[in-house]
Amino acid sequence: xxxxxxxxxxDGKHCDGTVEAEDRKQAITMLNGQGVQLQQLSEVDSNKxxxxxxxxxxxxxGSKKVKPRDITILTRQMATLLEAGFxxxxxxxxxxxxxxxxxxxEMVGDLSxxxxxxxxxxxxxxxxxxxxxxxxLSMIRAGETGGILAIMLDxxxxxxxxxxxxxxxxxxxxxxPALMLGAMVxxxxxxxxxxxxxxxxxxEDMGRALPGPTQILxxxxxxxQTWWLAIIVVLVVIGASFRAWTKTVAGAxxxxxxxxxxxxxxxxxxxxxxxxxxxxxxxLLESGVNMVDAFASAxxxxxxxxxxxxxxxxxxxxxxxxxxxxxLSSAPIMPVLLREMIALGEESGQVGPMMKRVAEVYDRQxxxxxxxxxxxxxxFMVLFMGAVVGMVVxxxxxxxxxxSVGGT
Length: 408
Prior knowledge:
Helix content is 72%, strand content 6%. The chain is mostly helical. The chain folds into three domains: 2-43; 68-132, no CATH class; 162-408, Type II secretion system (T2SS), domain F (Receptor-associated Protein, Up-down Bundle), CATH 1.20.81.30. It is elongated.
């Protein structure tokens, strides 16, 4: 028996521990049977704690971490090579040589050896559950069964590339405001730590009554200097508590719902989640997955637990005989376009292509929204930062102005 350390999620909560099993495959089967969604699994070496033999680990090849984008690149390379006529094992060998010193080399080499030993590709991929999830494995199995593995890999690559582009757009929309807020906090911190105390000393020597804004500023500065450690501790505790709350099922559900209902960015968040849902559902439907399973899986990868729960409730109605479009009508947060396109697809038997079109529409809209947000928020953030710093400067200079006017 060997010992395996694992990390994952169960019932929406983080879990980790050690499991005893004959081999990695049995460990994965045991943990999946316990409802654990694996994120990391590594064999415990009795001679060297924490090492991994044969390596199911988040860090392969001993150095770099395998990123989701690496899996997308692997998928695209495999699709291209198989379409070009390469046998599966040879394609894997080629990819492994291309990344001979990188993070993917060991994993791809293991996959190649597994194929040469007669295992199915989907079985070999299942040894790495932290990289290849249920949707990925289901589509690979469908490709193996139907003899269309290259087509399935191409669809997976297309879906992952589109999702990554969507994620990149979201990050780009959030990066600039975060940087500007960070710069403003640093600027104010420097002013309160070094500039305000010098002015406070000067004002005390003047012995004059200070204007209201200046007095408020000095009080804030004194409070921050006296209680800075307590302020940091409180902020850290609040942040950690909020993070812990969002990791619970109830907290994640409420947080995801609040994000969708927020003014200004709520609509963008809905489009972001629906684009992922529609693209995944469309890809699965075109790959032969039945509608209930396709939308159930799509809801799980939408990136929003609230939307996932809406889909689960709607699919429960579908199992009772309701059309999906009708079942979703009780959830007004789901866009009308999505419901109408599902209705048209159900009437024509073309739900898959309709979902692909919905994803294209929302992809285009998110690009336009990000462009609009960027063009509006850049000058707004500059003005806001200038106004805040300017008010601090004016509050500091007010007593000097009053003294100058009084002196004349």
